[in-house]
Write a structure and sequence with these properties.
The protein has 537 residues and is mainly α. It folds into two domains: 303 residues, no CATH class; 209 residues, Methane Monooxygenase Hydroxylase, Chain G, domain 1, CATH 1.20.58. Helix content is 81%, strand content 0%. The protein contains 24 helices and no strands. Helix 10 crosses helix 12. The longest helix is centred in the last third of the chain and has 38 residues.
Length: 537
């Protein structure tokens, strides 16, 4: 009974070590991961290298996939380059398993002893991240030691050895079992780690442990497919990655004995290193074979998984992927993209609201008001998504960013309501009364609309880039808009005193339009304050 508990404890510690290592690298490198991907993927070969480095800096297949898709949608990389990134990332993920293959148990204490003071007493995020990463590696190494000790008592159990022998003689079933285990644990490293412990303890034959490696590789691709199935780009990437793995499995499974024999001379640390080398060789071979074929495969995947027409899709969030909630930095990036999408809808509403006063179209008024329902839905989903992040430990910068995201989403939702319930209702009133603005009056309103629309563009850009110069410009424009609104009211009153018929007929509508546009601009300025108040934001 004690052995079983120790075995489960070893698995739990391994999973915790992987999570600790991932969180540590996020603290340590942060947004630099995105910059690396953006600048290093100008060709398939550079994409391969970028994926390799990213997978070492953030040992999470889901994190790398989300970063890659974010880069696609931002226009920094092409779809075929992301396939190259995943080939490189698959190689990088094998480094952790290589660390586990060596039984240098004394290093467990060294990593943990160095990591604890840095993580507990560090003040800078880089220091804390370094300590957390060292702790993660230490926990991983310690977990392998625990698993090896836990399985040692059953080494001489003939029944267990017979079961393992039978499984090893049917590698396809063992591959399927390892795939299912990876889906349960959500970690290929943990799955392969169990295989290493069983193999190192003399319980599982070497052929069987290598079959576990292949199954874990397929499992990681299936996990990515499930996580990214809701979006076309992630689905294409995940299907491509799964095809890579299945092709490799189809070749390697029938050749397991030959593969093991070929790796023995290269594995001086024993059987566990044979397993780790098989993991590395499997993914290196896939990269060598498929990297030249990436352009053709990308075109085939685009035909296999076509983009849906916008009108056929049910409206909803596009970027709020729950798979990234375990990583605050990634989740905040996803929420940022969704809020920028929300800003595009609000900007389109404002442009079309402007048109309603020119075209006197009741149908266009209805279309704009329907768009506000989309804004309300996105605001609700974004708030719910960001709120779930509070379950995760966030650093001060991430907490500030969370507050800024919620604030701008609220301002956009309020602007949408102003357009829907105020500006469009004024346009309907103008249509119903069958009146027209004076030539001079409309010229002023037209120009005022344009300035507010321009400020909406600046606000969205400032929010996305957190640029202090844009934020300062937005504040300056607030005062200019306020002063101009007062001046335009005075001009309108002057036309009323002059007895201009058009001005008299449209006076209430004219003044209310000015007031609402000024109100919209005031809400836009809210995005500037968090940017200017933050030291590094």
């Amino acid at each position: 009974m004690l052995e079983q508990l120790n075995f489960l404890a070893g698995i739990a510690l391994m999973l915790y070590g992987i999570r600790t290592l991932r969180r540590g690298t996020e603290r340590l490198f942060g947004s630099r991961l995105r910059k690396l991907l953006q600048t290093a993927t100008r060709s398939n070969l550079r994409g391969l290298g970028a994926g390799f480095i990213l997978s070492i800096l953030t040992p999470s297949s889901t994190a790398v996939a989300l970063l890659s898709v974010e880069a696609i949608n931002s226009g920094f990389v092409t779809f075929q380059q992301v396939l190259a990134v995943m080939l490189g990332a698959n190689i990088g993920f094998t480094i952790t398993v290589q660390l586990l293959a060596f039984k240098f148990y004394l290093w467990n204490a060294a990593f943990i002893a160095l990591g604890v003071p840095l993580f507990v007493f560090g003040r800078r995020q880089q220091v804390v991240g370094t300590g957390q990463s060292l702790l993660g590696v230490g926990f991983l190494l310690l977990s392998i030691q625990m698993l090896t000790i836990a399985v040692a008592p059953i080494r001489d159990n003939n029944d267990v050895r017979e079961v393992m022998r039978i499984l090893a003689s049917h590698p396809v079933w063992l591959v399927l079992f390892a795939t299912m285990l990876e889906l349960i644990l959500q970690s290929p490293t943990a799955t392969i780690g169990i295989g290493l412990a069983l193999c190192g303890g003399g319980i599982m034959p070497l052929n069987g442990a290598v079959a576990v490696v292949i199954g874990a590789n397929i499992g990681i691709a299936v996990t990515a497919l499930v996580a990214g199935f809701s979006h076309v780009d992630t689905r294409r990437m995940a299907i491509g990655n799964l095809l890579f793995k299945l092709a490799g499995a189809a070749v390697c499974v029938p050749m397991l004995p030959l593969l093991v024999d070929a790796l023995r001379p290269l594995s001086l640390a024993g059987d566990t290193q044979v397993v780790a080398n098989a993991h590395t060789l499997f993914n290196v071979a896939l990269a060598l074979v498929f990297l030249p074929l990436v352009p053709s495969l990308a075109r085939w995947l685009e035909r296999l998984v076509p983009s849906r027409r916008t009108g056929e899709e049910r409206f909803g969030p596009q970027y709020l992927d729950t798979a990234s909630l375990g990583s605050p930095a990634l989740a905040l990036g996803q929420a940022t993209r969704e809020i920028l999408r929300m800003a595009d809808i609000v900007q389109d509403m404002l442009v079309r609201a402007h048109r309603t006063f020119v075209e006197n179209s009741a149908a266009l008024c209805e279309e704009v008001q329907q768009e506000d329902d989309k804004v309300d839905l996105l605001n609700t989903e974004i708030k719910a998504y960001i709120t779930r992040l509070r379950e995760q430990a966030m650093n001060p910068e991430e907490s500030r960013r969370e507050t800024a995201l919620l604030g701008f989403a609220y301002e956009l939702e309020t602007i949408g309501d102003i357009i829907d319930k105020n500006l469009i209702e004024l346009a309907k009133k103008k249509i119903m009364l069958r009146v027209e603005f004076s030539k001079e009056g409309w010229s002023e309103l037209d120009e005022f609309f344009g300035k507010v629309q321009k400020n909406l563009e600046i606000a969205a850009s400032a929010f996305a880039s957190r640029d202090r110069l844009l934020a300062t410009e937005l504040l300056r424009h607030k005062h200019q808009i306020h002063e101009e609104e007062i001046e335009l009211r005075a001009r309108h009153f002057h036309r009323l005193h002059a007895g201009l018929a058009e001005s008299i007929e449209t006076s209430a509508v004219h003044l209310d339009v000015l007031s609402n546009l000024k109100s919209i601009n005031s809400h836009l300025v809210g995005v500037a304050y968090p940017i200017l108040e933050a030291k590094t934001f």
